[in-house]
Design goal:
alpha/beta; Rossmann fold; 8-stranded mixed beta sheet; globular
């Protein structure tokens, strides 16, 4: 069995599994079908990522709860202040599969740039208590985390939202909601390695003509929302991403309002764009989000 064949199979696992679940689940009922769909969308890896070496010095673990949470629900977070008290502060929203222990390498890179970082695990991930997530619950968790970030960083000009992969859709939803205010209370949105909507991603990866858009209950439709975002938007993507094609970011960029910036990082894959394009990343942030907060970011 060739390596290229295995690579293609791994690339298509999500869409093929999802389509099979849809076909098998249709006779069973909508509730069972949605449950299977959510399992495939979030595909949560339990426990600690095998490459995790421990929480860095300076990271504080915090637990957030909403008034309507019971004892079986909580949001586990990492709060990592920056060296400078007046540094820009970023809400980190991760994608599917890995909890915070699998995200540390990217969080470290953002912190090294000069950001203070509040990173969360959605309910059902890592140490966050809760049932299997859904599109609705991860949006709720982002709202709760944003309310906490506003307490940590009182200056709206130094608040940012960052989302990677599926977290990019969560980030777009959050900032679109905040943009309904007369003056959005943040400086900008950064999304990386993300997609237009979940159905587009599933269709592209599996190369199918089946009506995936009609079958999915979890939409994660950033393309429908991004033109209502009223803050500067940085969209980054690796040209070598085999899981989520960079053309999705190009489509989102075309739909977004000015000011905006598209950063295509040559040869980067789904997970290493920030590392490979670190200097270009920092330069793009400084150019797009002009102000004292971002001018202090490290370019090295």
């Amino acid at each position: 069995m060739s390596n290229s064949w295995l690579a293609r199979l791994r690339k298509r696992w999500f869409s093929l599994s999802l389509l099979l679940a849809l076909i098998v689940g249709l006779p069973i009922g909508c509730t069972t079908l949605e449950q299977k769909e959510r399992e495939l969308v979030f595909r949560i890896e339990p426990g600690t990522a095998y490459w995790f070496d421990g929480i860095p010095t300076g990271v504080e673990e915090r637990v957030l709860r909403a008034p309507d949470f019971d004892d079986t629900q909580s949001i586990h977070t990492w709060w990592w202040p920056a060296a400078h008290q007046d540094a820009p502060t970023l809400l980190y929203l991760h994608g599917s599969r890995w909890n915070l222990t699998g995200q540390l390498f990217r969080i470290e890179q953002l912190h090294a740039m000069g950001f203070a970082v509040l990173a969360i695990d959605y309910r059902g991930f890592g140490q966050s208590l809760g049932a299997l997530p859904s599109e609705r619950t991860v949006y709720e968790d982002a709202d709760i985390a944003w309310a906490h970030l506003k307490q940590l960083q009182p200056d709206p000009t130094k608040r940012f939202v960052y989302g990677h992969s599926l977290g990019g859709a969560v980030a777009v939803n959050l900032v679109e909601t905040l943009s309904r205010e007369d003056t959005p209370q943040l400086a900008g949105l950064i999304i990386e390695s993300t997609f237009t909507n979940l159905a587009d991603a599933a269709s592209a990866i599996s190369n199918t003509s089946l009506p995936v858009h009609w079958l999915l209950s979890q939409k994660f439709d950033s393309l429908d929302k991004i033109d209502r975002v009223k803050v500067p938007v940085l969209i980054a993507h690796g040209t070598g991403d085999r899981y989520v094609p960079a053309r999705f970011s190009e489509t989102l960029f075309a739909a977004a309002n000015e000011p905006k910036r598209l950063l295509l990082i040559e040869g980067a894959n789904h997970n290493n764009s920030l590392r490979m394009g670190r200097r270009e990343y920092a330069q793009a942030i400084q150019a797009l989000f002009q102000g004292p907060a971002t001018r202090a970011l490290s370019l090295n």
